[in-house]
Amino acid sequence: MLPFSYQKPANVDGAIALGRNDRREPTRANAQFIAGGTNMLDYMKLGVTRPAELIDLNGLEESELRSVTVSDRQIRLGALSRMAEVEDNKDIQQRAPVLTDSLRLAASRQIRNMASIGGNVLQRTRCEYFRETSWPCNRRNPGSGCAALEGFNRQHAVLGGSDACIATYHGDFAQALVALDAIVEVAGHGGKRRIAFADLHRLPADTPEIETNLQADDVITAITIPIEPWMTRSRYLKIRDRQSYAFALASVAVALDVADGRVRDVRIGLGGLATVPWRAREAEEALKGQTLNEEMATKAAASAFAGAKSRQHNAFKIALGQQTLVRALLETNDMRV
Predict the structure, then answer these.
(1) With contact defined as beta carbons under 8 Å apart, do 185 and 192 qualify?
(2) Which DSSP string corresponds to 225-260?
(3) Edge-to-edge strand order for the sheet containing 183-188?
(4) 3-state secondary structure of 33
């Protein structure tokens, strides 16, 4: 790990003032924010991220950054609240179990006790070619190439990739957030603003080194999720190589509104399969107004992967993703609410 300076501002305005990051060279950024540190410190030790200055957000005095509140209209998660705290919230377990599921199936309890909600959604890919600095990687070193394209790419994305990058977004919680139309509250030098969670992350295209639509000095302050009564019928299904402490090969977040045997509304997020948290809108449209059975779920799953592109080792993910979506839809439909 290279030397760096350390700052611990007392409030959000102080953090914004310190956040002078050079987005053109993200691995050599002047400054980086840190909260739980479960992702940032890992990549600093590997030499993937090399900030000259680390800005610790844990000293921020604003109490709303740590609060978790649930009303009839929305769930509001302060950005510095911890994953385990949200996971344990009884109101969230009842109102939107898909959120609880996605947290419970992520990492270990020890990590969930440390990791912040705001930091979790900004975690970086676990692509081995990104993590190992001897390999060319456009996300780590723009213009150097993508070793995964012709390398061992079993874990890589089949949705949202480009000729510059096929690294998978590995988080779990984000799939539930993108499915439920979450909003990210941000403070920056231009003031406060709200970003649809679906617009937070950027597809790699020709600039995979720019991973989000945040500005260099932006601080996430909260995430809000609008509540619909039917979100009690929701779940997160994660398929992986082993049953604990492993990233998803395919995962699905589903929330389902069914009345008189027909789908009135449905939300679907896909994980382990795409370069960003992925909303399966084509599948949603295919299901609306239909009777949800295995045949209809299979048709919807096929539409979700119509644009998928596989590589040498990850072609199995398309079939696996479809099967996982079918299973998630049918099991969610069978939930007792």
Answers:
(1) yes
(2) EE--GGGGSEEEEEE-SSSSS---SEEEEEEEEEET
(3) 68-70, 74-78, 219-226, 183-188, 191-196
(4) strand
Structure tokens at 102: 């996605």
List the beta bridge partners of residue 146.
137
The predicted-structure confidence for 182-237, as pLDDT tens digits, reads as follows 999 999 999 999 999 999 999 999 999 999 999 989 999 999 999 999 999 999 99
What is the per-residue pLDDT across 243-288, written as a single tens digit (0 to 9) for each? Answer: 888 999 999 999 999 999 899 999 999 999 999 999 999 999 999 9
Q: In the chain, where do the E strands start and end?
A: 5-7, 31-34, 53-56, 68-70, 74-78, 183-188, 191-196, 219-226, 234-239, 250-259, 262-271, 278-279
For the chain, the 3-state helix, strand and coil shares in percent, each to the nearest 5, are 30, 25, 45
Least Cα distance to 92 among 176, 174, 170 occurs for 176
